[in-house]
Queue: 4 jobs
Job 1
Amino acid sequence: MLKTLNQLKPGEIGVVTKVNGRGKIKGRIIDLGIVAGSRVCVQKYAPLGDPMEIKVKNFNLSLRKSEAAIIEVQTE
Amino acid sequence: MATNNLTIALAGNPNSGKTTIFNNITGARQHVGNYSGVTVEKREGFRRFRGRNFQVVDLPGTYSLTARALDELVARNAILNDRPDILVNILDASNLERNLYLAVQLLELEQPMVVALNMADVAEKMGHKIDDQALTRRLGVPVVRTVGNRNRGTEDLLATVAGVAQERKQQPFTMDYGPEIEAKIKEVWSVLKGVAPEKYPLRWLAIKMLENDKEVIDLVAAFPGGERVRSVAENARKKLQGLFGEELEVVFAERRYYFVGEVYRDVVSVNNEISQTTSDKVDRVLTNRVLGLPIFLGIMWLLFNLVFTIGAYPQEWIENGAKWLGDFVSLYLTDGDLKSLVVDGIIGGVGMVVSFLPQILLLFLGIALLEDTGYMARAAFVMDRIMKSVGLHGKSFIPLLVGFGCNIPAIMGARTLENPRDRMVTILVAPLMSCSARLPVYTLLTAAFFSESYAGTVMFSIYILGIVLAVIMAWIFRKFLFPGETEPFAMEMPAYHIPTLRSILTHMWERGSLYLKKAGTIILAASILVWFFVSYPADVSYSKDFEQLKAASDAAYNANVNDGEADEHEAEIAKLDKEQAAEKLAGSYAGQFGHLIEPLIKPLGFDWKIGVSLFTGFSAKEIVVSTMGTLYSVGAAEDDTAELQESLTTDPALSPLVAYVLMVFSLIYTPCIATMAVVRRETNSWKWMSFSVLYSVALAWIVSFGVYRIGMFLGY
């Protein structure tokens, strides 16, 4: 199913299909290794619900939900 | 340059262990400065190795080399313009794929390079076997294994560096971006050739122009004949963009990651890409949905107590020591200008500078522990939701919290924020956190003008006012001074690990010495200036001849020495001394200034005496209390706060409302010269320091005026 990353629940795994948007945030996300084809796993959400923590390319990354919303993923 | 000297630049991702390796190489022979014109730190060190001098630069840790972020730009300019003899790229072996992404970009700069494969032991324990030879083959550069936190492999690394530097050859590297892109790179490259000076890597320039990198495009356009290259590149970029239907920068980044992925799979045999590590298990508790916040607050409580409760002891010793030294020196100097300068100006000033040192060292002990263990990123993770609402980053919380103890370490602590805009806003609003030095002002005025049942509420309201103003000002600064798109939050959560003593001590030493050297001199100079303003002119015309009156009193007392009226006599002398001190202060430049600004502060309900107190309060907020003590307790015999409180309440110019407004003003305007000096040092700019002072004074006036008028309207 096609979703954006912020819609995934902790423990869910998805494969990135596209990073939307433009500018600094998109650039940063791509530089950190979230490109089409990367497998991402949602670790958890922060105590106050935002940001979220994901695992990608073997490291942990924290993203605001607004940033995760530009990342399209295909869930298994 | 003599061949005996080598310049080495260390490049790598944040958290790759770069700084640890830098410390291993240089030991204590290093210093921290700034890259010219920016707030990005420049760390340089020196090492003598087998008869050669190595000059080592620790570049800012970055994930990429784009022109989007200041630290990335600084790092790449340091490589392109300063042209180190050799680059050392530190790769975190347990995070190799993402680290290789930067490596590829460094290789594209075509400089001699050595790769340090750091913490390979950890990676192999996690089940990632790394084939060093395959890595050397794929990248075309030597690979050396290091274990930074155990100082292993440093000698090997240096030997390899020395060897590679000996050859002094360009380092060719080509990564295939696919036929369409390669054709366009070639097109741009062929017009660039002959236009760009030889020192620049042509292929890299061509790639950056296609990526629409503004810095490189401007650089090339400025070369003779560069305009043509710009238009060729622009056309090529538009064509490719049409072809891919995506910003080219993104296409390039993706291609690099595909290439890196290939290299990675060649070099590392992985068992599981998304495995749950020990660090993840620890995190399940520390950033737990329920426990995360209480644990965070507990750690903050510990930090606060470490800095301010424990820090209070050495601070007191230093203050007592300075006082003792002042008294001691007084014995050997005759009364006069010189004595006053040495005791009040210099010893007092130095004492003040040094007295902040324990807190700074302890704060950076705490920060180093939080950062080196990896908890700092978790703190930002937990707090970001709240800080985001004011347009700040989760990491701003710690410096702001520390501000309640003292603004100086708070402003220095803003360094943990990588993003310059977040950092500037944090530095500008941190002084609104009511520090402990402002407490004496509140205590004195609350005790004098408010009944005990209101005292708590009154003080609490001042603290809350500070927080509310900080929120408003942060929002305003963000919107008007640092506008533009929101900075990305996306932040790596490094694996937890045990910090090394060496790195923590280095961190503390670095901050402590930086504070003493850079901020200390300004603080000292400013305290001498303030001393001058309160001590001069020396020949104030007094209303009475105090010396004669004191002499007369002494004579009268000595004549009746047996009358047992020693107390009375001392009281009389003390009373005269106080009167004289008050008149001297009133006649000093500071006093004249108080009179001068009276029309300006009249609308706030303040008279000249408050003007003088606020003026001297620039040096430190405790001084407001002591100045008021000198000006108001005239006629009081005893030197205690009860007397001062009484003289305050009986002064017709003061009312509970004016006292409250005075507290508001003291809260908001510049906390002290030490804060100013630290703002100057941390922003690397006199302009921002002046702005910080001016805005806080203006804000203090406006808010005080508002409070005063509303209070009057409500009939207080």
Job 2
Amino acid sequence: MFLMLPLFAAPPAVRAESASEREHKIKAAFVYNFIKFIDWPQEKTPDKNKPITIGVVGSDTFVKAFDPVKNKQVKGRRLAIKRFGDWDKLKESQKKNDSAWKEKLEALKKCRVLFICSCESGKNKVPVEIIKALKGSGVLLVGEVPGFLEKGGVINFVTENKKVRFEVNSTSAKRNKLKIRSQLLKLAKRIYKEEPSEDAKN
Amino acid sequence: MTTEKSSVFKFGFTLILLILCGVCARAFAEEARSGGEEDFFDMSIEELMDVEVITVSRSEDALFRTPAAITVLTSEDIRRSGHQSIPELLRMVPGVHVARIDSNKWAITARGFNGLYAEKLLVLIDGRTVYTPLYSGVYWDVQDVMLEDIERIEVVKGPGGTLWGANAVNGIINIITRKAADTQGTLVSGGMGTEEKGFSSFRHGGKLGENAYYRVYAKYFNRDEAIYSDRSPAADSTDALREGFRIDWDKSERDHFTLQGDFYKGHSGLRTRMTSPGVNYQTDDNSDVRGWNILTRWTRKYSDTSDMSLQFYYDRTERYAVNLGESRDTFDIDFQHRFQLLDGHNLIWGLGYRHTGDNTDNTYTVAFNPSNRNEELFSGFVQDEITIVDDLLKLIVGTKVEKNDYTGYEFQPSARLLWTPDERNTLWASFTRAVSTPSRAYTHMTNKFNSIPPMQFIGSSNLKSQEVKSYEVGYRVKPKDNLFFDFSLFYNEYDHLYAQENNPTAFSTIFDNKMYGETYGTEIAAHWQVNESWKLAGGYSFLKMQMHTENSSTNTTIASRTERESPCNMFHLNSQLNLQDNLEFNTTLYYVDSVPHWDTPSYTRLDMGLTWHIRKNMDFSIIGQNLLDRSHPESGEDGVIATEIQRAVLARVTWEF
């Protein structure tokens, strides 16, 4: 507190945590790699002409990190990015439960992967609302905040010694009918399994 | 003139040398990645897991968005610099003029008005104000900590009176040590050299409980005497012993307590001249210095945007020499609270009280009247950070109000505008008013010259505060992830500056406020992470001073003297290079213009250091300082006889376990 910087600049902490573009470029590359090791069994005969959609919740600066994905292909299919904007705005719309939200929800469910940034308006809070809305919908929910897995997310990024690591909720993966190959699982820092009774308790 | 030329030559020569070093470095480190975005997408997960994020830390980001001319020295900068003391470290800050007078005295300032008794800086160590109320300057010989435990040194050039109060006229230096939790384990460090004859430090950190950590430390150094301009040995040998501790306790998620204290004891040698018409002799002396302090702080965090802190400290200093004897006790209590008032208003306010009492000796040359004095300072401040456009435009306005025993109430307002169009650009502008209130020396001191007829200069109780109105703009830009530039421009208007005037009662001069003037200048800093193993940092500053005296002033020399007391141009370039995984090569080149008042020619200084990481936690360093010449002066006679800065070599071992 008596340090000068917080006094002089007193930037809201929110802003401060957001800065690393590099970190998000790395995470975007991780997400691209995940797709190679995950199967969506409900797509038994995937349409090769249809792209695999990666949804991104977060401001445009972070969505930019996913730009290189557009030129990539996985399993012979193109990749597409769908922006959903800030989490806060999404949440407001969800509260109102208006037609705009219903449209959004449909679009969210069409994504194969949804990456939820927790760096700005979300500020280190678990996006419980989105997770609930997409429970069991087959979307690979990727987050970057402590507690993301416990609330039902599938893959969560953590930073350890300045390096990016990920952890997996295997129960949630099953619930979403996602098949995560063992090559990927064995690289996870932690595999989290939900207690069977947890759902009942909630 | 020839010295100027040879200095320019040396400067050019070493610059070429540095560039050559750089070329070699590139060859050494060619495997370094360019870090482009496509790279990540070509990597496997295993490879990605090995990439460092280099997360921009909160303080780094805050630094980028600070609406003031700020420079931060990191612990890495400090470790790699090879410097052994806090004042020497400040050489690396663009715009800060460090002139070493002898082996224990420095003249340090930013933006002009330098001298042994420079009195326009506010210096803090872990929240404790360390400039002396005796003359508002800093006794640099006793401002020390274990350098390995410094987390960072923040230096703000320009006034910061609104938050920090009186004396923050030309700058603030804030030395911040690491939390006890970050200094666990044992560290032993020691070495010897041609000038730093012997130095050693020891620190041990441990756990006191579930959430409480402590450290204790001790350090000692013995510094060799320097030489005078005629190459005779100087009388300035120095030694000091220092011990201290720090405890940090996270009582809960939101409550944090700190308790820390230091004790020190040392000897600082010097030679002074007793002079006046007809009399001229020199005398050697040794200041016996001693002091201790204890500080406690409680911080409570309510949310990301709201917290409060309450701090108390007691500080005792003693200094005894032939010409000056002083002991002083200071009690200080400070409260600060930060919160969000309305949407878009981040408010910070605080209250402070300081009591300082001194006891001075009536010496052969100096007398204070009264010889003992207690002073009180009451202060309060409020500052509002107003978000005008989210994430884009902010206005920060505030003022400090202080009541002191010399001039009564003082207002120190400021307004700062901060424009942050994106993550790579920051533009700021500010207007600030700050004051330096009169001090004991300028008010109550009589300096007796032993002369015939007797002459003296005396302090004045009618002094007003010295005032600055400062207009600043600054721009920071990160054109690439590995490149950073920081520009600042300032125009300062000073008024009521101290100058000695003829005293009608004859044979004496008396202090008055009849000088005024303008200064302007710029500071530029650049950082370039050339590749993974090579970092370059540089700084340049320019200063122009125009001083005037009022028509009624009888002092005909002070204006031109003040103008000629600070160098116009300063430059430095620092290279931090990792030759191999376990070998570091650090080089710094400094250039400082001539200081006409002191008759010191411009100089170029080259420091080089090689550090070998013998084992994971063991380093061995060889450091060469001032390699380009045998010795050179950085300051002239200014109260004490100045020595020259000699070429020096030292070796250092650091072991952590």
Job 3
Amino acid sequence: MIQSTVTDVILTRAQVPDGLKAMIVWSVGAHIALVAFMIFMPASWRGDIDAGPKTVMTISLGGAPGPPNGGLTPEGGRTVQAPPPVEPVKRAEALPAPKTPEMTLPRKDARPRPPQPQEAPKDSAARTPSTGQPQEGSTRVDTGARGQGFGLTTGGGGGTGVQVDVANFCCPEYLSQMITLIQRNWQSNQGVAGSVVMKFTISRAGTIENVQLEQSSGFLAHELTAQRALLLTRLPELPLQFPNPSLTVHMRFEYQR
Amino acid sequence: MHTLGSLVLALQVQDGAAPLAAGSRDLIAIITQATVINQAVLAILALLSIMSWAIILAKSLSYRKVADQSAKFLDVFRKSSKFSEVQAVCASLPASPLVGVFQAGYAELNAQFRHTAQPQSANPSGPPPRPTLKSLAAVDRALLRAATVEINKLEKRVPFLATVASVAPFIGLFGTVVGITIAFQRIGTTGSTNLAVVGPGISEALIATAAGLFAAIPAVLAYNHFSTRVKLFAAEMDDFSLEFLNIAERNFT
């Protein structure tokens, strides 16, 4: 009986609830609020910059159209010097052996022939080779020409350079065809200078979809003509080498005057 | 020759699977399109996180109250000259563990006084005798018992935080490994290593690890914080027990 008083004190104190249930409710509420916040917060906070697809190639077609030379600049097809093709050395034909040689066992101590040092071609060290015949360029040489490798340069000028950064669009011919077709439907002469950037998607079947204005020049006529040019254009199917189902293009229409 | 304006093209290669308008998969889509195993992992982690946050909130509130009331109690204890005065205050400071220790000690003292007073009641003529303690060790034991109970009370549910802290990352990792396994199977069945095929799977797999870490990190921090505080409270109780014993020894022996 005497000890029970201390035990009673201890037991009563041990049975006080710690208020966890209320806190569970609060915690659930806080988690729901957090999830809601994550869902509704601006995408940029999440690191999802919705800047559209990655630009992999920038081609500029500045100024007046160039000569219709198949899409290549004269420089693009410039001849470069290359060593003459090595002709296979003709060997004298030996007569067939009169009789079948007996089979010989390979010798165990036979050693493979040591690699013979190859002679470097003449004049290959420092100077431009002068012995070879000039040939059609077969290597990629930086000739300083704009648009080389794509055959899309239709002229100089315009002020914008070419940045070719091909990641995985395969087919420059398709692009040049696309530009030609769009230019056919485009009224470039609107009386006011300015430039409009349009964004559109080419589907696998070649239809132009999702035409959107990305950058306005401030003149409605510019936007409408650009849009009209895109809507009127019928493109061929996307090339087979291009694996994706659609291709998004940003196209700048520059109105000179 | 006609003059043309200039055209600048920026070509883009669009990721094949993603729709154009919605550039990014949002959180809901990731979770609803995840595999069942991943959803289960996420649900478990959410539950662990909810529980651990509930404990964190409850414990921080209760520890704040404990520290507050203990300070008040010590103040009263040191100022008053009689244990009965202190006992009167105890009811208003229920959260302080020192109150429990004090009440246990006080109950033991009273019990011993009653025990010693009974034989002397036969002699009613003299002045009431000065109460004396039979055993100081018994008071010490009562204080120790109360302190143990109070520490248990303070520590209750804190080990759950340690469990969450150590287990949640592994659960998340499990979800991730399963998700990545499935993503690789998808590569195998479609035969395409296109990121559009693999990317979402890996992304949803990694969400599980993120959720595991999200549950574990606060739990680690809170566990360390709370165990330090419990240690401090325990030291405070030891100190108080010794003080109580000293006073009892000085006055009642």
Job 4
Amino acid sequence: MPGWSVIRAWVLWVVVLLAVTVVMHSAREDMEQAHVVLVYLLVVLGGSVSGGRSLGLAIACAGFILIDYYFQPPYDTLSVGKPLDWLVLLAFLATAAVTTQLLTLARTEAAEAKRRAQEIGSLARLGSEALNAGPAEEALAKIAQVIRTTLGVEECEIHRWDGSQVVPGTSHRSSGDGAEPSIVDVSNAVTLTAQSAGPEDQPGAPTPGEVDPRKLDLVRVTHDGASSVLVPLTVHSRTVGVLRLTDSAPISVDAEKRRFLAALAYYAALGVERVALVAEAEHAEALREADRLRDVLIASLSHDLRTPLTAIKAAAQQQKGHSEGAEIIVQQADVLSRLVGDLLDWSRIKAGAFPLSLELNTADDLLGAVTRQFSDRATLKIDIDWNQPALVGRFDFLQALRILTNLVENALRYSPLECAVELGVRRERDALLFTVSDRGPGVALAERERIFEPFYRPVAAIPDAARAGLGLSIARQLAEIQGGALTFSVRPDGGSVFTLRLPAADVSATLGEASL
Amino acid sequence: MSHVIQPVGPSPLKARLLLIVEDEPQISRAVRNALNDGADRIIEAANGRSGIDQAAAEQPDLVVLDLGLPDLPGIEVCREIRRWAEMPIVVLSARHSEHEKVQLLNAGADDYVTKPFSTLEFAARIQAHLRRSLSHRGETSPILEATGGLTLDFARRSVSRRGIPVRLTPTEWEILQALARQSNRTLTHQQIFDRVWGKNAGNPQQYLRVHITNLRRKIEEDPARPQFVVTDPGVGYRFELPE
């Protein structure tokens, strides 16, 4: 650390050296050589203490020459008279050098110990700030503040890394608290550092492309006259953020500082992790709340719509027989109620909030429930092989029933009265295939996929105000969310076949039981 | 409370007391109009607490309970009444939710009617519940004769169709017995499971539907159009007997 104090020490001790020489020169006839050597040794010690090793050694060399020149006969020459005088000179030089060396070592060790103590103090403070501060953001801000003041830089920023990008975090500047985090700068800085940036110092050569903090160890950047150090923050070898130190003077990062920085970075990483966890918990809480609100909304909407419908229907039923319109009102109330249900379901499927209960169910049971819905329609023919064990699948019974009911309704609507609609089931590898076949007019080639789109009405559709055009769209989505599919195919000899594919399951036919 | 112990006579539906727990006046009126012919007296409660109080004080023969009450969840009212009373509870709900229906049946409700309902059908169901609850006061008969020549002998644990014995597995028999003992009433999957396997069994519940399917193939005339063991989709099964 060259500075004024060192220059001052040099000037001071050179002056002392000269003064001592002048004083001793005037009295050299009365002084013994040993006294002279001792005095010069004192000066060397003083110089070493206040000016360090180089000053000590310089004074030692100067003393060597001065002793030889002024204080050893023959005087005022550099030649040495007696061999014993050489011994004195060399002993002086060796003693001076060794003391200087020892003093310097002691000083360095003292400085190191002081620095360690400061580091420990800082880490302890950091730990207590991290633990004591209330909200996670506040703790992170405190950590940034402690790191900044400890390292004596102008600004310390801590930002979160969410796996793909840097999320603005906190910043602490020497100019005052509460400064806005300069995320733009960080992004720039991160962008400026090379992809493969290692621990080596980097000039601020702009390298395009995003930088992944996971690849950084510690990167130094200089740009726009400021010097920055970027340190990735990791918890359990997972990168959670980035720490950035900025100063107008170059920030030196030696091995010692790097070690300390790693310790600081660990605290910062914990702080960032805590912020992330808190944010995650809040997010989950918000999602739960949104779910709850949506359920409440849907429930109250359906309640609010159905209650007046019930009253309307009940009133109309009382008028039946008295008024021609009453029957129509009853029917239309049912239609309206169904439309409301379809719209609500469609929006719930869209929102991914449709509750499913996937359970073991049998094809028999499902087809039985379908036929029951059309009990007065003799035109429904069931095709099951009763000689085979019951076919079992894993699906949502209600929704499968709904899909098939919708398909059968459609088929009955379009099929000529004298032709039965056929309802069949078979197993094909890992799937149960339920088929609904009719002898209706079929579906035009251009419309074979479009009929599954919401609110789509085929050109040749029978006009029907009772449908919102959601039936097949809902049916297909209900099939898909159960891991199945709903497809259309042309029936040989005319008509349509709708195939509902649902996951099959294997269950031992006897279920491990003997008959009574 | 003479009306409760009145013997079942030629006009069994008279002298009946019904309680309607409903906060919407229009629905309340619709229910009252639908049931007027089948009951002597109808009392009303506009919220759950007074519903529970009235049920305790008046001991009605049947409770019609709306779920959208201002003070208490309907299911709580149902559970509370069921703790000390056995009269049929018929629930009215605006939600077409099988999950809710299952919960209510498990909580002790006897039936579940969704809005908008047909008043005729509603009245018929109420009458059926009334008739059943009053005629079932005694012991159930040891032999049950269903239509189509199906006979269940509870004492011998045997089933026959048109005189020919039907061989059932023990589980199939238990299921059939559980359903037939409470015929015309839907038992939830959970209720059947508890009756057949017991509350501490593992999880053979998922095979219930397979057992039912096998059972139907043995006792039904046309298993594709079951007449006895009927599926209440998403809720459970019931054994249907013509009343």
